[in-house]
């Protein structure tokens, strides 16, 4: 049997493994969670990393279809997303979650469960979100066509100590994206 030439042995070295991480975007509707997380997703994919994006709107049509907007259903929504994020994270995927996820305690619960976790508070004043009204939902909520809309007639609990705050009313989309990319790059477990 021929021995392998010594130069080719290096190719057998395992590459430095990617570590899993959940990056959880929370904030009011229209604050910018989807915009920022989609851009971050693209950047990470372009770097050749394994990434998944669990976006609240899509999740509610699939994984958590049938859940409503009562406190218990909102908590259940967060828990199910957290469960999937945990499975992916422990398999070394970078998971981007963008969901209003209004309850602080529920976010803390998934943080504890997942461990490798950074919280991004996508912050804009209600008045700004309402003016953007990306999906026309604030107007509907104000007209009474939909109930239990976060910020109007349902609570939002801002994080006390998030790893990153994106103040989207005062910073550019590029600045917000850069903050998140920086937090991912310096996360201690990576
Ligand atoms: P959410 O996912 O939180 O409901 P979206 O991402 O759908 O919010 O909408 C946010 C809107 O705010 C978009 O129209 C986006 O272009 C705008 N926007 C303005 N500045 C920023 C910023 N710095 N980061 C993110 N979005 C911003």
Structural class call reads: alpha/beta
Q: Which CATH first-tier class would you pick?
A: Alpha Beta
Question: Can you count the helices?
Answer: 7
- Beta strand %: 5-15%
Structure description:
- The protein is of the alpha/beta class and 190 residues long.
- It has a single domain, classed as 3-Layer(aba) Sandwich (Rossmann fold).
- It has helices at residues 33-46, 56-61, 71-90, 104-114, 126-132, 137-142, 173-186, and strands at residues 21-26, 51-55, 94-98, 117-123, 164-167.
- Strands 2-3-1-4-5 form a five-stranded parallel beta sheet, sandwiched between helices.
- The radius of gyration is 19 Å and the shape is globular.
- The structure holds adenosine-5'-diphosphate.
- Residues 27, 29-36, 98, 122, 132, 134, 168, 171-173, 176 line the site of adenosine-5'-diphosphate.
Q: Could you give a short description of this structure?
A:
This protein is an alpha/beta fold and 190 residues long. It has helices spanning 33-46, 56-61, 71-90, 104-114, 126-132, 137-142, 173-186, and strands at residues 21-26, 51-55, 94-98, 117-123, 164-167. It has one domain (18-186): P-loop containing nucleotide triphosphate hydrolases (Rossmann fold), CATH 3.40.50.300.
């Amino acid at each position: 049997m021929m021995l392998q030439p010594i130069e080719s042995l290096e190719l057998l070295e395992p590459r430095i493994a990617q570590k899993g991480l959940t990056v959880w975007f929370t904030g009011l509707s229209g604050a910018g969670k989807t915009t920022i997380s989609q851009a971050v997703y693209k950047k990470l994919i372009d770097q050749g990393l394994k990434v998944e994006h669990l976006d609240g709107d899509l999740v509610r049509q699939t994984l958590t279809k049938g859940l409503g907007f009562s406190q218990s259903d909102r908590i259940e929504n967060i828990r199910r997303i957290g469960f999937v994020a945990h499975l992916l994270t422990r398999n070394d995927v970078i998971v981007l979650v963008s969901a209003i996820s209004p309850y602080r305690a529920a976010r803390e619960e998934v943080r504890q469960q997942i461990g490798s976790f950074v919280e991004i508070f996508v912050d804009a004043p209600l008045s700004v979100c309402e003016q953007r009204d990306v999906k026309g939902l604030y107007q509907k909520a104000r007209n009474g066509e939909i109930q239990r809309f976060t910020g109007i007639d349902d609570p939002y609990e801002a994080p006390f100590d998030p790893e990153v705050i994106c103040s989207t009313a005062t910073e550019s989309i590029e600045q917000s994206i850069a903050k998140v990319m920086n937090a991912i790059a310096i996360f201690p477990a990576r």
